[in-house]
Structure formats: structure tokens, C-alpha cells
Specification:
Layout (H helix, E strand, L loop, with lengths): L5 H16 L14 E4 L5 E8 L2 E9 L30 E8 L5 E8 L4 E11 L2 E8 L3 E9 L2
Antiparallel strand pairs: 1-2, 1-8, 2-3, 3-4, 4-5, 5-6, 6-7, 7-8
Length: about 150
Amino acid sequence: MTNNSPAFAAFGLSLIAAATLLPPAVGCAFAADPLGTWYTAGKESQVRIRHCGDALCGALVWLKVPNDPKTGRPKTDKENADASERNRHLIGVEIVLGMKPSGTPDQWKGRVYNAKDGNTYTGYFTMIGANTATLKGCALGIICKSQTWTRAK
């Protein structure tokens, strides 16, 4: 069979067709991409997810209401358990911390900082579609809250 023979062309097409019909090889995973900017629940804020070493981290990059209604000044991390952090602006605060693959496809596990109460929880970031994810934070491993995030376009 030569490279320009009809039989060779048919053979090539049959390989392409077979490759598209076969299931992926064992061990191949087609994980959704968590990197990028995400709206939190209710589009209250945006978090940019990026690599930090071999993990995922995410910082607040936008707030729907950036200023404290009481003071008119930019919102600060006033509930932080660490008093030395309470005056920092919320924009730039890391809330998704050191998440690594959990062993479940499209899910990462690490820590989640909640600026509303100033606490850090065990967290899970799970892709449920190309543009949708859930962020779950758990205290004591049993009391959990989740919210759905959507990818900002």
C-alpha cells in the first residue's frame, strides 16, 4: 500500500473513525479547567483561580458593593480572626487556599477563607460543568455550606 493509494486513504480514515468512537484509554482524564475568574453566588464578587505551586488558589478581584455602606470606604477584612489583618482591603484577599486534587475527578480539596465570618474551613472546589462549579466549606467535617459559582466571561 503506497501513501497515495485509495486503500491507504481508506485505512487512514478508518483509524480516525475508530479513534473517535473508542472510549478514552484507562488513566486518561479530561478534567474541566478551574483556572480563570468566577462569579460567586448571587454575583456578589469575583474570584480569580490560579496555580500557586502545585495547588490552586483564588483571590477576590471584584466586589459588587466595594465600599462599606457605613463608612463609604473600601471594605476591609474586618472579621478576620487575626487582628493584624482586619484593616486590609478585601480586594486581593485569598479565599481559596492551597487546593489540590482530591482524588475525585474535577474536584480539589484545601481550605476556604470566609471573609464574612473571618474563619477558614476545609474546602472543596468541584467543577460541575465547563462554566459552573461549587465551592463547599466544612467545619468539623460535618457542617458544610456550598455555593454555586459561574465563570465570568
